Amino acid sequence: MSSSSKVSRLCGNYGSENFNEMRQKYKEMISTLPNRMPYHPIYKLYQYEGFWYYSSFLEAALCMQQNFNPQPSDIFLCTAPKSGTTWLKALTFSIITRHDFHDDFTNSPLVNKGVHACIPYLEHDFLNKPKFVDRVGLSLLATHLPYTILPKSISLNNCKIIYIYREPKDAFVSSWHFTHKIEAKNLEVPLITLDQALKWFCQGKSVFGPYWDHVLGYWKASVEKPDRVFFFKYEDLKEDTLGYVKKLAEFMDKPFSKEEQERGVPQEIVARCNFENLSNLEVNKSGMLLSERTLQISNSVFYRKGEVGDWKNYLTDDMAKLIDDITHDKFQSSGLTFPSSSACN
């Protein structure tokens, strides 16, 4: 694909003047929406059609509705925050680029740039880096956007979607830790308490929340289009990483050949992308990301524990029950289930 065609799939048929007018229109509209008044204005969220967003992310999502032209070969990695995003990116990137870096993994961008620099992040890069696809020349694109606000062009072009979801209590605790680390580095304000974070999470007022509605949107899409939406649990990936690496490769139309399987290529990808290996890469110990809100984000904050059931170390029984009750109410008619707090290991 040429550079010009890559840009056209992002910018559609709009000139820069019309695009800027569109952005201004949405900025003004967003300012009128209900908002979550936080302890610091940099974390202000706005509610739109049932979900909560940073203003820049919502602006990008709305602009993309009219202004984003994906290729049918594009694959979208979709997740709620802290639900396995980093691991999913590493695995899928390794699967797709395995022929390029099999002989010398030290040259892989995963090693030199870090996971999140390898795959464009739609709601950030669409507005801030118009030629972001040129950075990697791959078909992988990532987003935290709910299914209902994804550009309709993704469905119309029959693009594939991969969605990983996580036990809500673990997703919540992981998100709280992630936010704490960013706050401590960037903001001279009291850190958000666990109680306050839990209140917002259960009210659905977390970024890209409500968490349960985010999951259900993609679950319903996977039921309607099982050949286009690959939907699976973080916990299942932990239990059978090798099996899911093979399933992901098949879904992405990049199946492992018999010869590759005999050489142990799938096992090699699992080993390269495990938590210990990724977290110990120098780029993930000392590298930095800069967010669209000019925050300094260390790559290391994306690697905490990655464990199943770590919520038990932070939530009281009452806190766990509160999340479990919402999960039961939300998921009971969907076919999605998680162990109760008392049964979770």
Automatic annotation (TrEMBL):
GO biological process, one term: sulfation
The entry's keywords: Transferase
Entry EC no(s): 2.8.2.-
InterPro entries: P-loop_NTPase (IPR027417), Sulfotransferase_dom (IPR000863)
Pfam families: Sulfotransfer_1
Domain of life: Eukaryota
A GO-annotated cellular component: cytoplasm
Record-linked SUPFAM superfamilies: P-loop containing nucleoside triphosphate hydrolases (SSF52540)
GO terms assigned for molecular function: sulfotransferase activity
Family, as annotated: Belongs to the sulfotransferase 1 family.
Record-given protein name: Sulfotransferase
Species in which this protein is naturally found: Solanum tuberosum (Potato)
